[in-house]
Design brief:
The chain is built from 10 helices and 50 strands. The chain is mainly β and 837 residues long. It is globular and about 90 Å long.
Length: 837
């Protein structure tokens, strides 16, 4: 059953209950990640499945070859992964793609005889061709959507070896950011009877949600792959978070041969426990299919009961309560792991973002992994699920525009059908900054895309990210109106940038929301991208205007590629800097070896950066924060990047700066700030109206710098920075010391350079640490937050940045212990032990 869309003059509302696709029954969704062989650029043609693979190397999926250290065939040495001569240059983080081959040998057992066997890929970047035993199953161009193939027809008899071959072609200039290369998400094998629940065949919604009752509608599509009909029964059971049965229904049918049957019905849940951001509890739906009294299929799905509503007069409501979207945009890589979407890496990313204060994530500019959405369901993070970065008009010569006309429908279907049951997903986006958005051809495409989304799911609104920026488009604003008529929520990039000198626009553009709201009072809006310096403006506007649902910062976390768009630049004081887009363009001229964006609240390994502390105060997460600007070379001045922040850190440790003036920024909620150094009041400044910033020039002396904020005479906050001692030791801290054995789990080990009192030494930027590992695991990656450290992620040594680094440990399949040791010249070594079970 599909809910009807309800419109009133001031209200657009959806109520839904959703499930994430975790079918756990025997034969369903069996991870197929182990025992793959891989080679790069060494085989071609459909006969690749028959080649000698003795020199291919073993890999475990998810796998990204673009961040690996691969042999340079011309000189025989190991290099990489970064190359200043790469085709994509800074856009792809100075990495290369190419062509890679995967192969897996497997046999089926007697339990699979006569069954349907299919394989599902959650994501392959990109242009994947699949063969089974030499038979070409198909091609999937888009690198960000899931796809599956039926293997049954070409399987060898039980007990005989089957060879599955996958060719991946990441060729040409096809991405504006780091995409990674390979089978970078999970793969599953599904073995079912001829009559079974269809792929992505269960859809769960609730047209009614209250504290007393939830009406759960579960619609299940069943497929019959045989030529004979059967009498079957379908039983659907709902199990509470406490493990008790809270609802059940059953129905009997006679299936058609080689057809699809739909079972749909309502189950009432009394006093449901609702899915909230703060308490994301999950129920489980179990669908059993029986024939002649025997169980022939079973599908299990976790789901959360909640309602969502979008109203110009009430804002965004989750279970009837207003929530301002404190959102962040992210790209899909996992730092030192590249694009490999290992389950624990995706979960940790959500944990870090939630800890940083975010309650919503925009998946820019493509659907995320299933593992990421599972983590959002589990941890309570809202998601804007986005389909495309381009339609027919290219942003790069070899990007998805080549395949759009033949692939858009199956890719929209894959996104919506796979993701529509996740409680975390609250919106669909059909595109980002689409070039043809203000053209007649674009109007038609937008209508098709939005229509296809609504055909599959009417429980969420559709949006798109419009970029009406001088220089980016020559079209007048009115040309965008027909495109916005296609969607339910207007999404604007950088439309509240009144304070930013990088986005020059007239006052009518800067206040587009006011004008649009006056013309269309029933509309709701989101800021789909904003710069860090505009965090206060966007939050305050969202807080005051219910029709502005919230905003998504670019970006919540650093990512590989789009190198240098967030890092500040130094210029001679005598130089006159260009303004507007001309100035902005300078930050796209990435200089080797800068390989990451450096525009995130969190750096590439997950540590907080300056803009995150500022945003803590914006969101009232912290009453006051102190940051100190790094000293500038004589005769130079700094220009902040459009998507960056001034070069400040939380430190009062500045060797060699004694007696010199340091710029101190205090971010606080209040009217004035007082500053003390070593117990002595040294300055006091009023916070200018409309800001949360007080700026000081302080002569540096080691000791303790304290800032206090006041609202009138009332103390509202206090924060201090204390000078650290010299680097004395290494400290290793694992995020979890007990993990599961198996390649889907990880332990993230913080590396810290500390003084004799255990304080992190923030000026320790060039300390190189070497690592050794023993036991039931491997080092999967090493990293730091530095934007220009284009050294290997996979060697056993790496410098730290601001006294911090990261080691990612991946366990093998055996129970036991893993011991990581860290050493550096002149420092006390450290070790940490992790237990696998």
């Amino acid at each position: 059953m599909i809910m009807k869309k309800i419109f009133t003059s001031a209200l657009l509302a959806w109520c839904a209950v959703f499930a994430n696709a975790q079918n756990n029954a025997a034969g369903r969704n069996k991870l197929f990640n182990d025992n793959w062989l891989f080679t790069k650029d060494s085989a071609s043609g459909a006969e690749a499945s028959m080649y000698d693979d003795t020199k291919w190397r073993a890999v475990t999926l998810p796998h990204d070859w673009s961040i690996e250290d691969l042999p340079n065939q011309s000189v025989g040495t190991v290099e990489g992964p970064f190359d200043k001569n790469s085709l994509g240059k800074g856009a792809t983080g100075f990495t290369d793609g190419g062509t890679g081959w995967y192969r897996k040998k497997f046999t089926t057992d007697k339990a699979s005889d006569g069954k349907q066997v299919s394989i599902e890929f959650d994501g392959v970047y990109m242009n994947a061709d699949i063969w089974l035993n030499g038979h070409h199953l198909g091609n999937h161009p888009y690198g960000y959507t899931a796809f599956s193939y039926d293997l049954t027809q070409y399987l060898n008899p039980v007990g005989q070896v089957n060879i599955l071959a996958v060719r991946v072609r990441n060729e040409g200039k096809n991405s504006r950011w780091y995409s990674g290369s390979g089978i970078y998400r999970n793969v599953w094998l599904n073995v079912t009877n001829k009559i079974h629940v269809a792929h992505w065949g269960t859809y769960i919604t609730t047209p009614e949600v209250s504290a007393n009752n939830a009406a759960v509608i579960i619609t299940t599509s069943l497929t019959n792959e045989s030529t004979a009909g059967k009498k079957i029964s379908v039983t659907t059971t709902i199990i509470s978070p406490a493990g008790t049965v809270v609802g059940k229904r059953a129905a009997a049918y006679e299936t058609l041969s080689s057809g699809i049957l739909t079972d749909s019905g309502k189950i009432n849940i009394v006093k449901p426990v609702l899915w909230f951001i703060e308490k994301p509890v999950l129920y489980k739906a179990v669908v059993k299919v029986e024939a002649d009294g025997k169980l022939i299929d079973q599908s299990e799905q976790l789901f959360g009961i909640r309602s969502i509503e979008f109203s110009s007069t009430k804002g965004f409501l989750l279970n009837g309560k207003r929530v301002i979207l404190k959102g962040g945009c992210i790209h899909h890589d996992n730092g030192p792991l590249g694009s490999a979407a290992i389950d624990r890496a995706e979960e940790r990313k959500v944990e870090l973002l939630k800890k940083a204060g975010y309650n919503a994530i925009r998946c820019s500019h493509n659907p995320p992994s299933t593992a990421f959405l599972n983590a959002c369901d589990k941890l309570g993070m809202l998601v804007l699920d986005e389909a495309f970065d381009m339609w027919r008009l290219a942003k790069n010569p070899q990007d998805y525009h080549q395949y759009f006309d033949t692939s858009w429908q199956k890719d929209i279907d894959a996104m919506v059908l796979r993701d529509r049951n996740h409680p975390s997903v609250i919106m669909w986006s059909i595109g980002n900054e689409i070039f043809e958005a203000p053209d007649s051809a674009g109007y038609s495409i937008g209508a098709q895309l939005a229509g296809e989304v609504r055909r599959l799911d009417l429980t969420r609104p559709v949006t798109t990210a419009i970029a009406f920026l001088p220089g980016y488009t020559k079209k007048p604003w009115q040309d965008f109106q027909p495109q916005l008529a296609n969607v339910d929520i207007d999404g604007y990039n950088y439309f509240l940038e009144g304070r930013s000198h990088f986005f020059v626009r007239d006052s009518a553009t800067a206040h587009r929301f006011d004008e649009e709201h006056s013309l269309h009072p029933q509309k709701t809006f989101i800021v789909t991208e904003y710069t860090p310096e505009s965090a206060l403006e966007n939050y305050e506007r969202s807080f005051k205007s219910t029709y502005l649902l919230g905003a998504f910062k670019w970006t919540a976390m650093d990512y590989i590629g789009e190198a240098n768009i967030g890092s500040p630049r130094l210029f001679p004081q005598s130089r006159i800097l260009p303004d507007g887009l001309a100035r902005m363009a300078q930050f796209y001229l990435a200089q080797w070896p800068v390989y990451n964006s450096y525009c995130g609240d969190l750096d590439l390994v997950g540590d907080k950066k300056n803009a995150s502390y500022y945003q803590d105060v914006v969101w009232n997460k912290s009453p006051i924060e102190i940051l100190v600007h790094k000293p500038l070379p004589d005769g130079m001045r700094e220009a902040s990047a459009p998507w960056g922040f001034p070069d400040e850190i939380k430190s009062w440790s500045w060797p060699g700066q004694g007696g010199k003036k340091m710029q101190v920024q205090v971010y606080a909620r209040g009217t004035r700030v007082a500053l003390e150094l070593n117990g002595k009041r040294i300055a006091e400044e009023n916070i200018p109206p409309g800001t949360i910033t007080a700026t000081f020039e302080v002569e540096y002396q080691p000791g303790t710098l304290t800032a206090e904020s006041y609202d009138g005479e009332k103390l509202t906050g206090s924060a201090s920075l204390t000078t650290t001692g010299k680097a004395a030791a290494i400290r290793l801290v694992a995020d979890r010391n007990n993990i599961k054995a198996g390649a889907t789990d990880l332990s993230f080990v913080k590396v810290e350079i500390v003084d004799a009192n255990g304080n992190v030494v923030p000026y320790a930027d060039d300390v190189e640490v070497s690592y050794s590992i023993a036991g039931a695991g491997i080092i999967a990656g090493v990293g730091n937050g530095r934007m220009d450290d284009a050294s290997s992620f996979q060697q056993n040594h790496k410098k730290v940045f601001h006294g911090k680094g990261l080691v990612v440990i991946r366990p093998n399949d055996k129970k036991g212990t893993i011991t990581l040791k860290a050493m550096s010249n002149g420092l006390m070594p450290s070790q940490v032990t992790i237990t696998t079970h």
